[in-house]
Specification:
The complex is a heterodimer of chains A (161) and B (262). Chain A has 161 residues and is of the alpha+beta class. Chain A has five helices and five strands; from the N terminus they run E-E-H-E-E-E-H-H-H-H. In chain A, strands 2-1-5-3-4 form a five-stranded mixed sheet, sandwiched between helices. The model of chain A has no long low-confidence stretch (mean pLDDT 96). Chain B has 262 residues and is α+β, with helices and mostly antiparallel strands. Among the domains of chain B are: 1-53, Uridine Diphospho-n-acetylenolpyruvylglucosamine Reductase, domain 2; 167-260, Enolase-like, domain 1 (2-Layer Sandwich). Helix content of chain B is 30%, strand content 22%. Chain B has ten helices and twelve strands. The longest helix of chain B has 18 residues, at 243-260. Chain B starts with a strand and ends with a helix. The model of chain B has no long low-confidence stretch (mean pLDDT 96). Classes of the chains: A alpha+beta (161), B alpha+beta (262). Chain A binds chain B through residues 2, 18-20, 22, 41-44, 46, 49, 55-58, 60-63, 65-66, 68, 110, 113-114, 129, 131-133, and chain B through 1-6, 8, 30-31, 34-35, 37-39, 47, 49, 51, 76, 96-100, 102-103, 177-179. Bound molecules: flavin-adenine dinucleotide (FAD) and FE2/S2 (inorganic) cluster (2 copies). One FE2/S2 (inorganic) cluster binds next to loops of chain A.
């Protein structure tokens, strides 16, 4: 089997994979980083969203070998250095931006991607950027609110729903 | 998914040699092919990835004013390029979602020719030229019905050359689950010719709506489409929209394209 190596959350990792091994399978099964979820077979749900070389991608729609020699960031690398939740995660917690939590790792990675280029997104821009992330629980309202709050915008007038 | 051998050549000529294997297939951004392989609707023995081929990426302005886009250029890179005409930027910005746009490529989209895909409408409407490793194919000859194109086995789309219309617009009536077009209309207004391509609607895939072109060439206004009749016959009918509804949308979305052309 071919070898693959990459940097995941700042650490060099390697392994042997088949051609068909998806990046998400390598991350979950080989590296045991199970925060990146798999919610569909059709590339539509975004539960597997991660960053490869700083770009948001669906880890279920990329082969592990395509990430050879690349830098990968997953939800496990998002917390602050002291282990506390980062500002996006904290805002999701504070504003009830999750219920079952299945979609949350993908939501957080998509949000981190958005805030990199747009530090104060509008509600419309947030919803547009999360187009590829499906949540079955929250109805999105509190996710949007959490992201507005994470980007330092006043959410005191938005109803808690 | 069945297993396969993965190859990642760095040049077009290496890719062509890797393709000699009978069951070899090209991998662009994988945003269509990987889900298809998961369903075992495709089972190549070798996948030849195009993503490491730098010569197939990028966007450039040609001396004659046309724009060339490398076949391996992602939707995100097209969306972010301010030299491109407005209809094409809108189109690229609204394909799928941010993650899909970071991987999916224009070459993959055209080669796939999904009847609900966006790029085929832009290529056909502008009269683009699809450039492969052995010939140039005009968009009018390229699309051959649902998922069918003029491409031969092992032929690679290296780039696409778009003539630049003075006004253009892409209007997409979105299918919210798949995010493809239920009906998409691309309008290109050149100095002396208007071309309209419709995607998402017809069973034969992308097509030019010639009656609308004639009407708009005579008078470029929404009103000149009023008397045209779009028949539901030959339109796709599914759980998302009946053929009657798609036929209706063709006219509505074309009017929006006229109104919003810029
Ligand atoms: C959730 C989701 C939403 C989407 N929404 C839309 C949408 O709104 N509109 C839209 O148009 N599309 C949409 N797509 C499809 C997306 O645009 C794909 O990127 C595109 O259809 C295929 O491009 P690719 O580079 O990913 O090709 P791949 O999936 O890698 O390949 C597709 C086919 O093209 C062939 N191929 C790839 N590159 C070349 C080349 N250079 N030359 C010749 N053959 C080649 C492959 O062999 C394969 O048969 C969506 C996809 C997903 C997963
Ligand atoms: S698991 Fe659903 S998009 Fe990747
Ligand atoms: S919190 Fe349950 S799917 Fe989003």
């Amino acid at each position: 089997m071919p070898d693959v190596k990459m940097i995941v959350n700042g650490k060099p990792v390697s392994g042997s994979v088949e051609g068909r091994t998806l990046l998400v399978e390598f991350i979950r099964n080989n590296l045991h980083l199970t925060g990146t979820h798999v919610g569909c077979d059709t590339s539509q749900c975004g539960a597997c969203a991660i960053h490869v070389d700083g770009k948001l991608v669906k880890a279920c729609t990329m082969f592990a070998l395509e990430a050879n020699n690349r830098e990968v960031a997953t939800i496990e690398g998002q917390a602050n250095n002291d282990g506390s939740l980062n500002f996006i995660q904290q805002a999701f917690k504070d504003h009830h931006g999750l219920q079952c939590g299945f979609c949350t790792p993908g939501m957080v990675m998509a949000t981190a991607d958005l805030l990199k280029t747009n530090s104060k997104p509008t509600e419309h821009e947030i919803r547009d950027h999360l187009e590829g992330n499906i949540c079955r629980c929250t109805g999105y309202h509190n996710i949007v609110k959490a992201i507005l709050a994470a980007s330092g915008q006043d959410v005191s007038r938005i109803a808690a729903e | 998914m069945y297993n396969f051998e993965f190859k990642q050549p760095k040049t077009v000529s290496e890719a062509l040699s890797a393709l000699v294997n009978d069951e070899a297939q090209l991998l662009g951004g994988g945003q269509t092919l990987i889900p298809t392989m998961k369903q075992r609707l495709a089972s190549p023995s070798t996948l030849v990835s195009l993503t490491a081929i730098e010569e197939m990426k990028g966007i450039c302005l040609n001396d004659d004013g046309s724009i060339s886009i490398g076949g391996g250029t992602t939707h995100a890179d097209v969306a972010a390029n301010s030299n491109i005409f407005s209809g094409l930027i809108t189109l690229a910005k609204n394909i799928g979602d941010a993650a899909v746009r970071n991987r999916g490529t224009i070459g993959g989209s055209l080669a796939n020719n999904d009847p609900a895909a966006c790029y085929p409408a832009a290529a056909l409407s502008t009269g683009a030229v699809i450039i492969t490793n052995n010939r140039e194919i005009s968009a009018d000859d390229f699309f051959r019905g649902m998922f069918e194109t003029a491409l031969e086995e092992g032929e690679i789309i290296l780039s696409v050359r778009f003539p630049v219309p003075s006004l253009s617009s892409y209007q997409k009536f979105i299918q919210p689950a798949s995010r493809f077009a239920i009906v998409g209309v691309f309008l290109s207004n050149f100095e002396n010719e208007i071309r309209i391509a419709i995607t998402g609607a017809a069973e034969e895939g992308v097509y030019r709506w010639r009656e609308a072109e004639v009407a708009l060439n005579a008078n470029f206004s929404e009103g000149s489409l009023n008397d045209l009749l779009v028949e539901p016959e030959g339109m796709i009918g599914d759980i998302h929209a009946s053929s009657e509804y798609r036929a209706h949308l063709v006219k509505v979305m074309t009017k929006r394209a006229v109104k919003n052309a810029s």
